[in-house]
Amino acid sequence: MAEFDFSNRDSFGSKFGAIAAAAGSAIGLGNIWRFPYVVGENGGGAFLFIYLAFIFAIGIPVMLSEFTIGRKAQRNPFGAFRKLAPGKPWYLVGLMGVVAAFMILAFYTAVAGWTLEYIYQSIVNGFAGKSSADLGQMFDSFRESTFRPILWFAIFMFMTSWIVVSGVKNGIEKYAKILMPILLLLIIILCIRSVTLPGAKDGLLFLFKPDFSKITGNTILEALGQAFFSLSIGMGTLITYGSYISKKDNLANTAVSVSLTDTFIAIMAGIAIFPAVFAFGIAPESGEGLVYRTLPNIFQQMPGGYYFSLLFFILLGVAALTSTISVLEVIVAYFAEELKMTRKKATIVASLSVSVLGLMAVMSWGPLADFKIFGKHVFGMLDFTSANILLPLGGLLIVIFVGWYLGKSKTKEELSNQGTLKAKYLNLFMFLVKFIAPIAIAMVFLNGIGILKF
Ligand code: PHE
Fold first, then answer.
1. Would residue 224 count as lying in a domain?
2. What is the CATH number of the domain that holds 276?
3. Whether the predicted pLDDT of 179 surpasses 90
4. Are 285 and 40 within 8 A, CB to CB?
């Protein structure tokens, strides 16, 4: 079995490519599918307010910490911790990231598969002439069926593996650079259509007017989980991508650009969805189906709706794809560098094993609807455990690692590109990762899972 050749590691070819790939990871179903429905279930504006606070005070510092660890170590998450903290149990954080990657990829690819069904329906004009209720019904019966969701899941998993096999520069980066700008343009067009619907105002009020009486410990945990999930942080995706970023790039700029773009897209998705939710009388707390029930209504009311619908679901699929590849890459980098598999073998083994869990997630509304763990079906359990437990826990340990183990001088070396850049924000960053982020994550976490009650 061949040793992995670390002197010949693949990497991103340009600064724009690195940002596009990391933004490609961050921007995905988390922004366009998950964000609106979680906001809907948690009462709207107040949730958004807390979410934004978490992005800035916790999310950006965690992201920058991951980039620092990855680029310094030039390794997958497990190898990175082992290299930077030899003989210490920190590598377990990397391992937990690999486990989280399995769970996320499983349910995420299920939803990504729904996108393919909606591309198909767009092509055959399957939404035409349907009322809002019919469209809801259409989504439910699709999700409860067996064959089609599994077929789409398999196809999506295959596409993901295909790109990951091609490598970092010629696979991941190449696709992200073309696809991300198109997504941005499209979401802006949809927002314009949505806010000009009759009755759009109620949707915007729901999204932007905070009602703090709706906030509970669980809401706050959901906001933290959503922030982590949306930024792709807390499990080593960005350690992995950080390890492919050029030693000449400015990591702080990259982290801030990626986080701001991600947040912008989430809010735009909210602006595209909520006016339509209210205009078409859909319940904001409709859960995982929200986007799939809402958007076909808008498309039917737009001139050129046929094309917009097709384009939108293609792009939603694409946004999902640039995210699934980043999750799969975590597992593949780990298998290749630590278990000495070739990239091809690593990709095949990873995607097949994820698929076992993934198929259970896919069938959560169909054949496995009655199979519940702690009152949640497989899909809900994977989503909740990864976003609200594993990611915040991973993030907590990552900031503690940078703040307390790596320390200021080593962190400065990496953030200043060995002294060639000024890192004026360094003291603020160290303060955030040593104190604010860990305390905040720990409190939200303990409160959310009910160990601590405020
Ligand atoms: N951030 C991605 C999204 O918003 C999902 C993701 C989570 C990707 C964790 C990688 C790691 O869609």
1. yes
2. 1.10.4160.10
3. no
4. yes
